[in-house]
Amino acid sequence: MLVKIPLSWLREYCEIPWSPNELADRLTMSLLEVDDVTTVGLNYDNIVVGEVRSAERHPNADRLSLCTVDTGDQMLEIVCGAPNVEAGQHVPVALIGARVAGDLKIKKSKIRGVLSRGMICSEAELNLSDEADGIMVLDSESPVGRPLIEVLGERETVLTVDVGTNRPDCLALIGVAREVVALTGERVRMPSDAVNETGAPIDELVSVTVADYADCPR
């Protein structure tokens, strides 16, 4: 079974003194096979949260939309080819100078005779997933003009671990953390299991009487 292990989460449970690729090699040599090491997301420089104020059909292309997008400090006209773009959406907007997946630099460009001043991004263009059929729609509470990195967080390195049927303990992060500390000689930082109890003690709320000790010895 393939399990995705975000390194930022794994680091909450153990120290990792190696690079992601070296960690993957060491885990694989210890018989916990790592199939892949990927980085999800971008640096998100010059990519902000925008609000689509209007989305009208492009005057020269039936399958394109001409959108007016509020990015907090300016209104931009952006040509968008996504079928799911609608007015009122909060969306990731790559401003002029931003770089998206494939190291594509965003520039002012005329698309079917209309100047487009940015890009409304899909998840694929942000290197978050392979989803490229439509733009990424953010939560409506995402503040307009806020840098996208403050909304989505830093980019993440993820290990894809092939967990065998004999290692169900490694289906959880703590199990993988135990494998790491077996290599480093450190200790796992276990999460707290403390529970905040409120209200009256349970023995003041309910009592149990055993009527037949023969059939119910405990």
Automatic annotation (TrEMBL):
<dbReference type="Pfam" id="PF01588">
    <property type="entry name" value="tRNA_bind"/>
</dbReference>
<keyword id="KW-0694">RNA-binding</keyword>
<keyword id="KW-0820">tRNA-binding</keyword>
<dbReference type="GO" id="GO:0000049">
    <property type="term" value="F:tRNA binding"/>
</dbReference>
<dbReference type="InterPro" id="IPR033714">
    <property type="entry name" value="tRNA_bind_bactPheRS"/>
</dbReference>
<protein>
    <recommendedName>
        <fullName>tRNA-binding domain-containing protein</fullName>
    </recommendedName>
</protein>
<feature type="domain" description="TRNA-binding">
    <location>
        <begin position="41"/>
        <end position="149"/>
    </location>
</feature>
<dbReference type="InterPro" id="IPR002547">
    <property type="entry name" value="tRNA-bd_dom"/>
</dbReference>
<dbReference type="InterPro" id="IPR012340">
    <property type="entry name" value="NA-bd_OB-fold"/>
</dbReference>
